[in-house]
Amino acid sequence: MTIDFTCVKCEGSFELDAHDIIDGTEKLECPHCNVKAPQSAVDDFIAALTEMTGQVASMAKRFTLTMTIESEDIDEADDDDDEEEEEEDDVDDDDADDEDDDDEDDDDEDVDEDADEDR
């Protein structure tokens, strides 16, 4: 399985074999301008490739698979996820405010009960 890369810095194209990336014989580096991905990103990418190849192998008993992943498509999906998370955070903040209001109401009831007992 080969992966085609295009360097954002120099716009040079190159391809690497996924198995060579996974086993460490190939480094994720642009051969034209020597730009490297951060090691933490490479480690995460290797873990994802390893998981994906394992899953594809398990599906191979029933299906053949051809896949194209465009990084532009993934950027758009990440933007959508970020917007959804922001909306969820807003809802959670509103719920917390409601709980604070309920606690204040409970305190008022306690004061009223104490006043009744004094009478």
Description:
The chain is mainly alpha-helical. Helix content is 63%, strand content 8%. The protein contains 3 helices and 2 strands. The chain has helices at residues 18-23, 39-59, 71-118, and strands at 2-6, 13-17. A hairpin with a 6-residue loop joins β1 and β2 (13-17). The protein starts with a strand and ends with a helix. Mean pLDDT is 76; it is low at 94-99.
What assembly state would you assign to the polypeptide chains in this entry? single chain
Derived from helix and strand composition plus strand pairing, the structural class reads mainly alpha
- The residue-averaged pLDDT reads 76
Number of helices: 3
| Low-pLDDT sequence parts | 94-99
Strand content: 5-15%
What is the global morphology?
A: globular
Tell me the distance between the termini: 84 Å
